[in-house]
Write a structure and sequence with these properties.
The chain is of the alpha/beta class. The protein is 36% helix and 20% strand.
């Protein structure tokens, strides 16, 4: 280290300088005085420039080594203060002064710049990188190998994830929120008021991705847990924010009566409260622990001289005064220490760090990212309902018939779809539309589209209410399958998930329809891997032959589900959705 120290450095770990003349005889006082006077005269003659040169000769000189330090944006103010003090010291490598230039860099942007696995906005190179979470370098290392950078194993600060609520809407409860109870993991039921959970887009945010991982872990990794994960992801997608600024705005929105939570880091909540003193957020810590942003110090320089310079900055950031600077700005130290005068108990912050849950693996992050993106693709779904006479059969244990139960479950199922989804509705029996077995009630349109003064969603609800079975109607299944497939193929949209949902309680009994063999052969001929249209069938009743339905599902990459209880339709909807997370043809019905 050089001889100059600033407020962010201390004596911790320093070795005292030895006197340069420890073993020599002292020169006479007169000689020393004459030498000092001469030096003083030289200084006066050279003026300011001479003083600068002599001063530099005592520490470092030559061309500076300038470190390009890219940090997560929330670190910028603190890091600039620390680096200003660092730059004022004589930190040298091979006699050259080391200076740090700090700038903000989105962690996801840098990661995708390293891996090439996602969109970037350029400017992803640097000598030192401090992202908000080890999630990012883990992803980059998994894709790019060990040589892309050096993880020093040092965290410069930390900040646990918390749940923030708008002040004034908090209901006091003795029970802490938990990750497994935060979002619904089942089909919505009538009258439910689930939590309104908001998060920042997981593809761009460590807090968002960690939220997915924490909820996924609470559900479990078993195959049976996949429909529950789908329900959770769909609920979270309804409240996703593109960035932190947009997420902050949700904390100032008026509550609609639901319990609104925004997943943030402690430091982000602290910043929000400082910026919005008139509408501060209240903080909660999830029961059972949480994930902590750990701000790892990553060296990306390949030049050994620059790497040694980066080591000087790293060492400076671990010192007591620098750690205190992070604490003063709403972070915790790398070891989890917080200042209760900064993270105030009045806002719900706690001085003791919560239990830290493990960092999700790169494999888990990759899997969740794929699931998130797959479900995020807009849905384009044609639903077809059987109105044959058997739909009037009563459902044991209820006062409803099969159509009543199907109607109720389907109307509730509309809540699974965001407003920009495209849905349509057909009904079928035998020869109900002149010579045709099927009839279009509503074409496939966006749920928010205007339909004669009401939305498509409202029109579908009304149509379901008016659907009535034909007491003497038969089941024209195969002609309807083919007609629906051709309609969805004709109007196919490549930027959406195009699919068909068949709701029936019978087998094909239209003697004039195409045969199963003809249907299978035609679907094989007309289907395309580039334009998939999976067919999902939910069939209920004791007399269902599942084999034809499973063959149709296999050909199209869909799934077939059979049950004797129509009240299970809601849960089967979720299971059908989970097939979107598999490659076409991999899913098997039940």
């Amino acid at each position: 280290m050089g001889r100059h120290r600033g407020k962010y450095e201390d004596d911790e770990g320093r070795t005292p300088r030895r006197s340069s003349g420890g073993g020599r005889r002292r020169r006479a006082r007169g000689g020393a005085f004459i030498a000092l006077a001469a030096a003083f005269a030289i200084i006066l003659g050279l003026g300011g420039t001479g003083w600068y040169l002599l001063n530099r000769q005592g520490g470092c000189g030559g061309q500076d080594i300038t470190l390009d330090v890219a940090v997560s944006p929330e670190l910028v103010p603190t890091m600039q203060d620390i680096s200003a003090d660092f730059n004022g010291g004589d930190h040298a490598v091979d006699g050259r002064c080391v200076k740090a230039e700090v700038r903000g860099a989105d962690s996801a942007n840098v990661t995708y710049g390293i891996t090439g696995a996602g969109p970037t906005m350029g400017d992803t190179e640097s000598d030192v990188w401090i992202p908000d979470s080890s999630l990012w370098p883990n992803m980059a290392k998994d894709d790019s190998g060990e040589g892309a950078f050096t993880d020093t194993g040092t965290s410069v600060a930390s900040s646990p994830l918390i749940l923030a609520q708008p002040a004034g809407t908090v209901e006091e409860s003795a029970k802490k929120p938990s990750w497994d109870a935060l979002v619904p993991t089942a089909a919505p039921a009538s009258g439910e008021a689930p939590n309104d959970v908001r998060l920042i887009d997981p593809v761009r945010s460590a807090s968002g991705m960690a939220t997915l991982a924490l909820i996924s872990d609470s559900i479990g990794e078993e195959e049976a847990g996949q429909p529950q994960l789908v329900a959770a992801l769909q609920a979270l997608q309804r409240g996703v924010s593109a960035n932190e600024e947009e997420a902050f705005s949700t904390l100032s929105e008026k509550s609609d009566g639901s319990s609104r939570f925004l997943v943030l880091s402690e430091q982000a909540a602290w910043r929000y409260n400082n910026e919005h003193p008139d509408s501060p957020a209240q903080v909660h810590y999830p029961e059972g622990g949480t994930y902590t942003l750990d701000y790892p110090y990553i060296v990306r320089a390949s030049d050994p001289v620059v790497s040694r310079a980066a080591e000087l900055l790293r060492e400076s950031l671990t010192r007591k005064a620098a750690q205190q600077a992070f604490i003063d700005n709403g972070f915790r130290s790398a070891k989890g220490t917080a200042d209760p005068d900064v993270l105030s108990a009045d806002a719900g912050f706690q001085e003791e760090a919560p239990e830290n849950l493990p960092t999700p693996s790169a494999t888990a992050v990759d899997s969740l990212t794929q699931a998130w993106n797959q479900l995020k693709l807009d849905t384009r779904l044609l639903t077809i309902v059987d109105i044959s006479g058997s739909m009037l059969e009563p459902v044991p244990g209820t006062d409803m018939n099969r159509m009543d139960v199907t109607r109720a479950a389907s109307i509730e199922g509309l809540n699974l779809f965001p407003e920009d989804s495209e849905l349509g509705l057909w009904q079928f029996s035998v020869q109900i539309n002149n010579e045709l077995d099927y009839e279009e009630l509503l074409p496939v349109r966006e749920l928010s589209a205007d339909v004669d003064g009401r939305t498509q969603k409202e029109a579908i609800t009304e149509a379901w209410t008016s659907i009535q079975p034909k007491p003497d109607g038969d089941t024209g299944l195969y002609d309807t399958y083919l007609a629906a497939y051709r309609e969805m193929s004709r109007s196919y949209k490549a930027d959406r998930i195009n699919s068909i949902l068949m709701l029936t309680d019978g087998n094909n009994d239209d003697a004039n329809s195409i045969t199963l063999e003809e249907l299978i052969a035609t679907l094989q001929d007309e289907s395309s891997a580039e334009r998939p249209i999976p067919i999902f069938t939910i069939a209920f009743g004791p007399d269902i032959d599942p084999q034809p339905l499973e063959q149709i599902a296999e050909i199209t990459g869909g799934a077939a589900y059979t049950t004797e209880d129509p009240t299970e339709i809601g849960d089967i909807f979720l299971e059908a959705f989970s097939q979107r997370l598999d490659t076409p043809g991999d899913g098997e019905g039940e």
